[in-house]
Design goal:
Helix content is about 75%, strand content about 0%. The protein is mainly α and about 475 residues long. It folds into 2 domains: about 70-235, no CATH class; about 250-410. Helix 5 (about 130-155) crosses helix 10 and helix 9 packs antiparallel against helix 10 (about 300-310). The termini are far apart. Its main location: membrane. InterPro entries: AI-2E-like. It is found in: Cell membrane.
Length: about 475
């Protein structure tokens, strides 16, 4: 019994020592955890874990991942479209501010595309570049001036006759209205004429201001003509150097593609202008002959108007044909007007289905919907000049975009790594049945055969294809 208290004392001391060592180790572990964690991670009390019966709460996803894929694509495309729309708006504002200069330069491009083949032919005959350019420009401007003078001369020469015919047509229309089943009385017709006269008399100031505005327009037209003439002269003489200077403004990475698209765009524009001139000349000749044989006055000026309006696709043919029909209706009566309408429709059908596909070709073929929309947009932006240049601009843009797309695909294919293995087998070209195999298709050991073998000069290898 004397030994029991000593044993219990030693046991209590050992338990006390073990407890102190456990507390020391716990303090060291807490100190290490506190040094690794940030200020926001240090806590004084341990948070107990949630009970097992508590419902699980899903973590919140990333906001980008929460947006649907289609909406993200639409947003990415939307802000890029807004940037493009803003760029186009600024560009259109700049073009509107210098509209006269832009239209004059575009007209110079069209005239240059029409006259440049003549310069090339004269250069081939041995004329220097300056002399060939001067001869072509002088002859072209003289011909255009003579055409304009001829139209004005014909209109002024037949103006008295046309006014008499118009007066007779109005009297005939008045008699037809009196005898028609519409029960129109002569007093009503006189009231309409009096109202028209009073309207003209009360709006004299507006008519005068319109006349002054017309004088301003004439000054702008003459300025544009002078700009177009000088631009045409320099484009004919130094067009190649101007194009090389423009290429230096293009970034170096895009320069090869633009350099390849430029000549193709110019060929498209030249083909369009030349084809349009030929088609317009055929329309003017045949419709003018029909009008002449139907004894309609001013047949030649009407033919010239038909030639000029043919440069406005779709709309120009309708306007010029309607003008011819109205003149024939007023001067010769309903029967002659119907005959003129048949002539116009027949010639325009032949033009649309035979002449344009044959003369213009596929290079400048534009869908009719694109023609209508481009002519309408060009007319709204820049009037008659915009309607004239809209379709060639669309044709040239179509050619440039098609070439750049093909060029980009070819560049990406050339820069991509060479296929190998199963991929090479899938993309390998298939040889046509009956065609001789190429040297690249032959095995490596067969390419080393002698002259009589397939890879030699006498075989069916690559040498035969060369």
């Amino acid at each position: 019994m004397s030994k029991l208290p000593g044993w219990l004392g030693r046991l209590g001391a050992e338990l006390t020592d073990i407890g102190e060592r456990l507390d020391q180790r716990r303090a060291e572990a807490d100190a290490e955890a506190g040094s690794d964690a940030g200020p926001e991670d240090t806590v004084t009390d341990h948070v107990p874990p949630p009970p097992t019966y508590a419902p699980s709460v899903a973590a919140r996803p990333d906001p980008v991942a929460a947006i649907p894929w289609g909406m993200r694509v639409a947003a990415e495309a939307g802000w890029r479209l807004l940037v493009l729309a803003g760029t186009l708006w600024v560009l259109m504002r700049i073009i509107s501010a210098v509209q006269l200069v832009v239209l004059a330069f575009v007209a110079a491009l069209l005239v240059t595309a029409m006259l440049q083949p003549t310069v090339v032919r004269l250069r081939r005959l041995g004329l220097p570049r300056g002399l060939a350019t001067a001869v072509t420009a002088v002859l072209g401007f003289v011909v255009m001036g003579l055409v304009g003078w001829f139209v004005v001369w014909q209109v002024m020469d037949n103006l008295d006759t046309l006014s008499d015919r118009v007066r007779d047509g109005i009297d005939e229309l008045k008699r037809w209205l009196l005898d028609s089943p519409f029960h129109v009385t002569e007093s009503q017709i006189n009231d309409i004429a009096k109202n028209l006269s009073d309207t003209i008399g009360t709006n004299t100031e507006e008519i005068t201001s319109a006349g002054l505005q017309g004088v301003t327009v004439m000054v702008e037209v003459l300025t544009g003509l002078l700009l177009a003439m000088f631009s045409t002269l320099f484009l004919l003489y130094d067009g190649k150097r101007i194009w090389q200077w423009v290429l230096r403004l293009v970034p170096a990475q895009a320069r090869p593609g633009v350099a390849g698209a430029g000549p193709r765009a110019w060929r498209t524009l030249t083909a369009y202008v030349r084809g349009t001139v030929i088609v317009a000349l055929i329309d003017a000749i045949f419709i003018g002959l029909g009008i002449y044989f139907l004894d309609v006055p001013m047949a030649v000026p009407l033919a010239v108007f038909i030639f000029l309006f043919a440069f406005i696709p779709l709309v120009g043919a309708v306007v010029s044909g309607a003008l011819a029909v109205v003149v024939s209706l007023v001067t010769q009566g309903v029967f002659t007007a119907l005959m003129v309408l048949l002539v116009v429709l027949a010639v325009q059908q032949i033009e649309g289905h035979i002449l344009q596909p044959f003369i213009l070709g596929r290079a400048v073929r534009v869908h009719p919907l694109a023609v209508v929309l481009s002519v309408a947009a060009g007319g709204m932006i820049a009037g008659i000049g915009g309607a004239v240049v809209a379709v060639p601009l669309v044709a040239v843009t179509n050619t440039v975009v098609g070439y750049l797309r093909a060029y980009g695909q070819e560049e990406s294919r050339r820069r991509s790594p060479a296929p190998h293995g199963a991929t090479a087998h899938e993309v390998a070209p298939v040889r046509a049945p009956g065609s001789p195999p190429k040297a690249a298709d032959l095995p490596a050991d067969r390419g080393k055969e002698g002259p009589a073998g397939p890879g030699g000069p006498g075989g069916s290898g690559e040498s035969r294809e060369g």
